[in-house]
Design goal:
With 407 residues, the chain is an alpha+beta fold. Helices cover 53% and strands 20% of the residues. A hairpin with a 2-residue loop joins strand 1 and strand 2.
Amino acid sequence: MIEGSLSVVWILAFQVALTTAIGLIATYFISRRHKTLGEGREEARFETLNLANRTLPYLRQGVNEQTATATAQLILDYSQAAGVAIVSGKTVVACIGEGSDHHRAGQSCKTALTDEVLRTGRAKVALNRAQIGCSYPGCSLTSAVVAPLKIQRKVVGCLKLYYKDNQPLTAGQIKVAIGLAQLMSTQMELAELDRKTERLANAELQALQAQISPHFIFNTLNTIASFIRTKPDQARELLVEFADFTRRTFQKRGEFSTFAQELEYVHQYLLFEKARFGDKLEVVYRVDPEILSTVVPVLTLQPLVENAVRHGIGKKVGPGKVVVSAEDQGSECWITINDDGVGMTQEQATQVLRQRRQPHFGMGLSNVNERLRSIYGPDNQLQINSKPGEGTKVSFAVPKYKSGVGV
């Protein structure tokens, strides 16, 4: 009985295996047939995506001789044209293959066809040497497709694919050339967007640095001046510290620094504020040592502390306290600036984060908030808890480790 059952099992297994094999063979021939009917469309799509992926690292750096040459070589291998050239402005930045002996990088465009594309912003096709308009007597190129490269609808250059006598120009080749130019234009727009974003971030950081100076420098210099006769030694120490603080404020820095560096900068800033306020200002630090090496956006902590001193304690009658806290909470660090100053309404707190400039609170908080959101996401934005007469608590969290964030 068992042997009979085993025989049935083996027969069923054989039938399943045979059916699977037949199915695989049929699938193979069907896919081959579809490949023939579809002229390898799936393969073409894959190759196009692969080309886009390979050219992206170059074009995201901007178009120059090095990146354009690498891109032109990839396009030449992909398109199987006789030659490929890339023009930026009215200058040839790369020429690979046929024609590279007389269309060299750094030269101005020599063909009437290219001039027309740059002028009209429309792709053009040349079917003979005369239409190409190359004046070089030994040029072996007989046909070409020239497609414009655009950034935000503005023509910034063109992509040129050249062919010889034994390479008849087809409608498919024309579509490929135009499609590649559009692909390059998109990647160049992304590169320009990256550069604009970086410039904006740098401008905002410089604006934040500049915002620190006028009010703070005036008060600090007045404090030092008042100490020159009564406390000359302290005045001299403060002047040395102030010179170092000013140098650090305006020196060119990266986008990130360690929390220890930010804390040192805050400590130096509070040195001058304590000298100005005297016993009216008390500062307390509660920092877990484990997070001192955590990387945070540069100039994140100081604007929050300045806001607490200037708008919280500075407007309060009597003494006040600022507490700088940093807690280790597993994968995150919670950073809090707490003051027992005059406080504000919840509506004011909301407006502080929404508007870029506030007549009463400056641009420090909104700048810090926008940078935290752009780097870590909305979950890591500033949280403000405040009530009139009860002080203000500003807190945020940063991950201990994040890809792309480092010093």
